[in-house]
Structure formats: C-alpha cells, structure tokens
Amino acid sequence: MHDDRKLIEGRLERVLRERIRPAVHRSPIPMEIALWTSPDGPVPVAAGLSAPYRPASAGEPWGAPWATAWFRFTGLVPESWRDRTVEAIVDLGFAMDRPGFSAEGLAYRPDGTPIKGLNPRNTWLRIRPASDGRVRFHVEAAANPLIEGPVTRLGDPLTAGDEPLYRIVRADLTLFDETVWHLVQDLEVLGQLMRELDLADARRWTILRAIGDALDAVDLDDVPGTAVLARHRLEGVLSAPAHATAHRISAVGHAHIDSAWLWPARETVRKVARTAANVTALMDDHPEFVFAMSQAQQLAWLREHRPEIYTHVKKKIASGQFVPVGGMWVESDTNLPGGEALARQFVHGKRFFLEEFGIETQEVWLPDSFGLSGALPQLIKLSGSRWFLSTKLSWNTTNRFPHHTFRWEGIDGTRVFAHFPPVDNYNSELSGAQVAHAARNFADKGVASRSLAPFGWGDGGGGPTREILARAARLADLEGSPRVTVESPAAFFAAAEAEHPQAPVWVGELYLEIHRGTYTTQAKIKQAGRRTEHLLREAELWSATAAVRAGFAYPYAALDRLWKTLLLHHFHDILPGSSIRWVNRETMEHLTAAQQELEGIIGDALRALGAGRGRVPVAFNAAPHPRNGVAALGASTPRAGDHAQVRAEKPPGGGYALDNGLVRVTVDQRGLIVSIVDAATGRDAVAPGQAANLLQIHPDLPNEWDAWDIDAHYRNVGHDITHVASMTLLDDALRVERTHGASAFTQVISLRPGERTVFLECEVDWHEREKLLKVAFPFDLHAERSAAETQYGHIHRPTHTNTSWEAAKFEICAHRWIHVGEPDWGVAVVNDSTYGHDVTRDRRADEGTTTTVRLSLLRAPRFPDPETDQGRHRFRYTVVPGAGIGDAVREGYRLNLPARHVLGTGEVEPLVSVGHDAVIVEAVKLADDGSGDLVVRVYEAHGTRARAHLHVSAAIRSAAETDLLERPIADLVHDRAGIPLTLRPFQIRTLRIRRAA
Questions:
Q1: β-pair partners for 820
Q2: DSSP H or E run through 676
Q3: What pLDDT shows up at residue 156?
Q4: 7, 512, 837, 895: which has the fewest C-beta neighbours closer than 10 Å?
C-alpha cells in the first residue's frame, strides 16, 4: 500500500475546517443588536441594563481602548426549533490568537443574573427562550487593547485615543448539533494523538485508517445526517485502552489570572467575575469537572463586587468542584518582598480560605513567579501547608532543571514536596502535543509516573472550555496517550508523594534563568514597596507598645487593610515592574497613600507614648539592634558618645580625603573613591588602581521581554561615567555632580562620627532609553562566594563561573545587603531600595584578586511601559569595611529603619528584647484575633545556632509557639526573665504571649 498519510492528514484538516465544524452551529438567524457605551468605564449591572441603548449591527466598530460597552441582543426562536438545542454565537471581534487579552464579555439574563463569560475561545451561549420563543440577553463588554511590544503601540493606556478597536462580527441564534460537536472532538483528539506517535508505531497507522474511514462516511452535503456513522467508525480506536505503564496526568481546571499586568486591577475584577461565571456554569453540566483557583484577593474581589457570582462559587466549593489553592493573598513575586511581607501573604491568604470556606489549603501554587526564594519551604510549612507547585523554571534559558517531582529544601533545612508540571504550561489545552510532551519531558521516569497539568485559558482568564473537558474524557484511557484524570491538586499530590517517598532533594533558591531585569525595573515601585514594608513594621511595633503601655486603641482594621494593599502590589507582575503604565501609576498612588496613613498611625502611637508632650530629646528605634545608646524596639535619649569628628583634607595629587578615626576615604580628582581604609586593620577595601562608587552605563536591549530581561550580552559594551561637572566639599561630606547623555547625577560621599561606614547617596535625573545604570565597587578581596540577604536569612552564591549553573547567575537578587569577604575580613554593601546586583571576580596583574560588587540602579525598557524609570530618583547605599555577616545584618536594618527623633517625656521600655546579636525580632504586634495577646516573630540571621532569652517587660501568664497564623503549636517554658529560645540557622519562630492581668 502506498503511503497516503499526508493525503489523509490534509483531508482531515480541510474537512474539519470547512464542513464539520461549521455544521456544529447551523441555520444562523441574526439577532437584533443594541449598543450603549459607558462614558465612565465600568458601571453597576443595573445601570448597564437600563441604559439608553441605540441600534447597532454586525460589522459596526465599537470600543475605544479600555471602554466598556453594553450590548442588548434580542431574537425569536422559530417554532420548529422549540424542542431542539439552540445556542447563540456572539463574536464581538475577539482576537482568536490572544484569548484573555482582547475584547471580553459577560452575559446576563434580563433580570441581571450572570450567565457566563464570552471570550475568543468561548463564544456560545445556551438559549432557553421564553414560552413565546423570544430571546433577550445583555453582554457587558470590555474593549481591552492588545498591548504589544517592543514599544507599547498605544503609548500610555490612559490616553490612548478614542478610535474603536473592534468590530461586531456576529450575533446569531443557531441550532447546536451535539452529535456533530462530538465528532469534531473525536477527530481532533485522534488527529492530535496520531501526529505525536512515531511513524514506526502501528497505532499511528491504525488511527490514520480509522480517520480515513470516518471521513469517507461523512456526506459533505449532509454532515449532521452522517455524523453518527462517522463516529461509529472511530469507536474501535477510541476504545483501545492505554498501556499499563502509560504516564498518568492529573488534569486540574485552572485559569491563571494576573491580578494586574497588561490591564489594571479594575479590569482584573471583571476578569475574575467572567471566569468564575464560566466555570461554575460548566460545573452544572459536568459534575466531574474540578477547577482550582488561587489568590484570595481575587475571591475577595468577587465577594465585594459580584456577590451573586460569589454565592454560586461558594456552593461549588462546598460540593468540592471549585477548589481554592495557593494559600496566599496573591501569586506573589518571591524574590523581592521582605520576609514579613512574604509571611503575611500566607497569613492573609490562608485565613481568608479558612474563614470564608472552612478550608485549610495545602498546596502553595505559584506557577508564574519569576524565581523562588529559598526562604519559601520554611514559610510553607509554618503556614500549615505541605506541597508546592510552579512551572516557571521550564523557561530557563541555560540549564534544564533536573526534576519534576522532588523535595525542596530551604535555607533553614525545611523540606516540602514540590512538583513542576512537565507539560511546561499553566494554560494547557490538553492537546495531543501537550500531553505527549508531558510524558516525554517527565524527568523522573522509572521512579515516578504521575504529573499534574493545569488546563484552561489563562493569563487574562477565561478558564476551561467544554472542548477541553471533551479531550480529557477521551484521553482518560486511550492507547498511545498518557492517562488523563480530572481531579484536584490535593488528590495528585497525595498520590505523587506516596508513589515517590524518596524524591530527590534540591537545596536552596530556585533561580530562574530569565527575567533577571525584574530585580531592577520600575525602581520607584521597589523603593515604595520597601518603605511600606518597614512602615508597617513600625506601625505594628509602636501601636502594640502604646496599647500595652498607654491603653492606645490598636488599629486592627487599618493594619489589616494596609497589609492587604501592600500584598496586592507584591503580585508577580506589579512589584517586578512588568506591567503597563496604568498599573505602575496606580501602584505608586496606592503605596504613597498607604505610607501616609501609616505615618499617621505611627504618629498617633508615638504621641500616646509621650512624643510631643515633653522637652526631652528622644529617639524611637524600631530596628532590632541598639544604636547610640537607644535600646532596640524602644526609645530613650541618644548618647552622643566620645567619637572623633569627621575631618576633611586635600591630599597631594588632588581630590579629597574624609576621616573619622575608624575609616578613611580617599576621593580622586574624578570624584571617585580610590581608597577605603579600615583603621582597625589598616586594610584598604578598594582594589589597587581601581575606583569605587563608579557609575557605569550599558546598552540594555534584551532579545525579548523588555521589562523582564537583562541578557548577558549587555556586559560586552559599557561606559564609565567619570565626567565631573562640579565637586564640592560640604563640611563632612563631598558632593560630586556629573552628566551623561540626557541624564544628570549627583553623588554625595560622607562619614559620621563613631561609625565604620561610608554613606553614599546618588540622585539621578534619568532620561536614557534602553540603558542599564550600575554602580561598581571593586574590592581587594579573594572571595569565592557572596552572601546576599533574602527573607529571614541570607544565601551564598559562588563568584566564579565553573559551571553553566553559576554562569547563568550573572545578575542576582539581594535585599538590604550583600557581603563578600575572606575568612578574617570582609566588606558589606548595604542599600535602601535596590535588589539587582552582580558579583564578579578578576585576577589582577599584581597577582591579586578583585571581587567587584555592582548594584543595578535603573533601567529604561520601552515595553510594556514606555516611560519606565524616567525622571528623578534617589538611592542610598553604604560600604562597611571590615564587616562580618552580623555587621551586614545590623547595618541593613539601620539604613532602612532610621530612628525617629522627637521631643518627648523620656524613655519607653521595649516590650521585648533579645540579648543575642544573631536573633532578630522581626515583628512585634498584637494578635490578629483581637485578644490583646502579644505576638513576636524572631529568626536567626547569621546562619549559626543560637541560644537566647526573649525578655518580656510584663508578667507572663502563658506563652506558646504558633504557626504563621498565630495558632498554637506548643506551650513554651517561661520565667521572670522571659522565654528561653533555641534556634537553628535561619529558623523562624512565632511566639504568642498572654500577659498577666
């Protein structure tokens, strides 16, 4: 027999496209269309239903960018159709290749009851006409623009113009032929499977012959009349069972919805409503369908804005079909948020699911976050969760992650069971290609046989469709394919963990080898996020102190709301800076307002503690270490100390030198630091012949993903910014002004009496495009690794590039500090708002080694926000010569939590104190349940074991260790001195203390 494979495959494609699919919905009857465009964006449903509509027609343009339009559709079902299945097909100009990114709609009955969402992959609406055959429904439609790179086509989405983006394609009543629809699904599944099988596999040829026979049975002029016979000819190949060893896929309905990205949060609220309406309607028709939804914030939006849909969701949650997962407020970025902020993601997310649904979520669900912090396993366990899922590391551009099912060990040694779906997709269609890829790609063959596949249209929402569910049903037990079972994530994880009890272990961070630019993009958002985190710490600390000391009314509701505001803006496309300008503008507005409110709360608490009511100079120190004689977490009059004053001089050869007896800084005539001498050891931190505090600029045009990526080739070309416009000595500081291109830079170098720290400020008026600004510190150190602060600890990374894994980490994330050193001497570089860094090591001509630390200050990508980072910025960073890890930790808090100097009534004793430098008090607050109990969170910060005593300045009635949600785990021993504590390296412990009356 001749090879007729291509003939039959080509025939299948054309007949499906031109004859069989069109026969699913036939005999179209156009509906009457009426249109109203809201002048004010989204409106309540009642307003949309009662709006002054005007006639419209197919082909008519509608929808300026971001506009909201309401459509009214009316029609009459013919008498002859009354006992048959009728569906409306509504196409508002959907972009079929971008589901979830274009025009979208939500259909309503005349009484305002939501029916289901409409989107590019879901244009049908089941019709139940009135007794007289009349049909009427409304659609609230959003004209969301397609934001495309490399330059945002619409510019600023707030002022994108009034030209319509879409045209009404059709709005028809049709007869729905379920048999033909099933024939389409049969042929699609078999055709997709066939193409994935090897040419040498007899199964491929069996399917090919069956498809050919089925196509022969189809009368091209009467597809409905011959569909049953065509399906009958496929029964044999569809009923052949899968091999006993076939890979098993747990298919979980899902709709990844970015809480903001190429649309504002305002639109996400509606995306959530459309998706929830879709999936709950689908559940009514498919009791086997299970859908998982993460992000408590999105369900809270649904509760607030669309309670009628939320009620339906709650019913489906109770039935087990709609499954909350994730246990976090949003799918957060995990590189950039501080430790307490990441912990509160779990606190607020888990608590919402518990209080609303009585569900203790077990799965942490972060499919799209841009790299995963090594602090997460401990936080997952402390939140009461067991399992972890992500898919993003499949995007790695250098190294293939070696496992799909494994145990992930965090920086403290905690392990959690983790899974990366080998389908490499969190928006799967369950196509033949995707399920075959999952089976082929699965890295743990031989020891495990299960993987998970989240299915449904996502990023912009939409969710699963009846077509995807039809694929899942046909792939449940089909020869040549993995077995597909629709089930919950918990069912998958329980089975996978039981099957693979000795899963391999991956230790430390899960570094993503792409999207490294997100450590830096949108510097102001990162700065605002960092500042808001520290203000929340202060607001809780001083409010709790004032509540205990002075009867202050602890602002429970305000703090809860402000935490949730911050947590929303830690979403993985907001804090990383990869959203449109509208989102970025709103983020700054919301965080600025949060900071103002927090300052007000702090001010009220300090006044309750005596601030402004006396004449004594008082410093309130919210940092976890004492400074200038002021206890940590308390207040008193600072001691001036007997310290040498800062001296400034002009050495031979030009430039200046600053000296405070502890450190001497020499600045050359270019305004660059050429020496930082630690007086205690006489060591110079700066490498011979090199200059520190050196601004460097590079071209920055990544191959794709402008706001997200920094590609390694940027290092091939660079320019040192050394031109000096002016250099001025200001008492104990030196100010250097520079220009480059369209930008201006002001650098201030200073010392302070009694501090072994070089203080640096950099103000930038930035007007470059597609450039990267760094500041370099070449140190005279042979450092084999760097230490970078992460949440509740630090992580070591090699400075060499022995393997491709190390070479890929050419840009790394650090929080408040990064440290490099030799065994007996090191240097810390501390910052107040910078996350992107690189650390390199070079051999010098004098046989010495230079270890260079660079901070990434600014970028200027054009997509998706063409104005990224433009304008004025102010950065603060310090260099601490002779520093160990403990010094880096202390200086990081000191820079980010400046003391508040006021006139007051005197000393305020700390509520708690710890006499151990490595044990950090990270949070002091009152319990969230309003009981008045004191909650204290501590962690070990040096990477060592620590024994300490938590002193409590009040009589203790009882004390317990709790999880992150403040639920008791075990009673704690306590005495008059407080609570004895033992901590392993980087361990987090949360203590709940009930004070005696």
A1: 786, 827
A2: strand 673-678
A3: 58
A4: 7
pLDDT at 320 (0 to 100): 97
CATH topology of domain 909-997: Immunoglobulin-like (2.60.40)
Q: What is the pLDDT of residue 515?
A: 98
Give Cα 733 distance to the centre of its chain. 40
**Complete DSSP assignment for 11-51:** HHHHHIIIIIGGGTEEEEEEPEEEEEE-TTSS--HHHHHTS
Q: Give the C-alpha separation, 2 to 361, whole Å.
A: 57
User: For the segment 458-486, what is each residue's pLDDT rounded down to a tens digit?
Assistant: 999 999 999 999 999 999 999 999 999 99
Domain 248-514 is in which class? Answer: alpha beta
Is the CB of residue 582 less than 8 Å from the CB of residue 523?
Answer: no
Under-50 pLDDT residues of the chain: none
> What architecture is domain 520-622?
Up-down Bundle (1.20)
Structure tokens belonging to residue 759: 């203080």
Count CA within 13 A, CB hemisphere, residue 783: 29
Give the model's pLDDT for residue 151.
Answer: 59
3-state secondary structure at position 673 = strand
User: What φ, ψ does residue 363 adopt, rounded to 5°?
Assistant: -105, 125
CA distance 914 to 848: 41
The predicted pLDDT at position 250 comes to 98
Helical (H) or strand (E) element with 988: strand 988-995
Q: Three-state secondary structure along 882-951?
A: CCCHHHHHHHHHHHHCCCEEEEECCCECCCEEECCCCEEEEEEEECCCCCCCEEEEEEECCCCCEEEEEE
Q: How far apart are CA 742 and CA 738, in angstroms?
A: 11
Q: Which two tokens stand for residue 715?
A: 């290092």
In DSSP terms, 72 is beta-bridged to: 34, 138
Residue 713, C-beta contacts closer than 8 angstroms, at least 6 positions apart: none
Contact 811/774 with Cβ under 8 angstroms? no
On the question of a common fold for 25-176 and 520-622, the answer reads no
Q: Are 48 and 70 in contact (CB under 8 A)?
A: yes
Dihedral angle, C-alpha 891, 897, 898, 902, nearest 10 °: -140
Q: Which amino acid is at 914?
A: V
User: Among residues 142, 198, 263, which one has the least CA distance to residue 5?
Assistant: 198
Q: How many CB atoms lie within 10 A of CB 110?
A: 12
DSSP E strands, 548-622: 616-621
Q: End-to-end alpha-carbon separation of the chain, Å? A: 94
Architecture of 650-898 per CATH? Distorted Sandwich (2.70)
Q: Out of 1.25.10, 2.60.40, 2.40.50, 1.10.30, select the CATH number for domain 25-176.
A: 2.60.40
Q: What gap in Å lies between CA 299 and CA 269, rounded to an integer?
A: 9
Give, to the nearest 10 degrees, the angle between helix 223-232 and helix 202-217.
Answer: 150
Element at 871 (helix H, strand E): strand 871-881
201 tagged catalytic: no
Quick check: 123 and 94 in contact, CB under 8 A? yes
Per-domain boundaries in the chain: 5-21+179-239, 25-176, 248-514, 520-622, 650-898, 909-997
| The two three-digit tokens of residue 729, written as one number | 């000595």
